[in-house]
Every structure is written in structure tokens, then in C-alpha cells.
Amino acid sequence: MGQNWSLDGDEFKILVNEEEQHSLWPSAQPIPDGWKQTGPTGSKQECLDWIKQNWTDITPLSVRATRH
Prior knowledge:
Layout: E1 11-17, E2 22-26, E3 35-43, H1 44-54, H2 61-66
């Protein structure tokens, strides 16, 4: 059975893709293709707080670019 990555005691890192979409990722896991690390590594709540403060427009970058 696979590991449950949503446990609050786990340490996470924050990933971002080319569309500037953010995601939590278990810190012990390798970063998947198409993503890079941004922000802190820490508890689930620390990472969620950072995402809330820094990812204020969840519209994908490609869609935002067509608005201008």
C-alpha cells in the first residue's frame, strides 16, 4: 500500500509549473518533470500559508497573457 502524503506531520515542499500553478509535494519525493521548487520546505500548514500569500491569482499564466 502506498504512503498517504496528506498527513499533517509530513514535511512538504512547494512546487510551481510553467503555468505558475502551485502544488504541495512530499519533501522526500523527487520533483516531477515540469515542476520546480519554490518557497519554503516545512509543515503542510506552513506551505499552505505561503501559497495563500504568494499565489494570489490562480489563473494559469497562458490565460493571463491573453487578457492584455
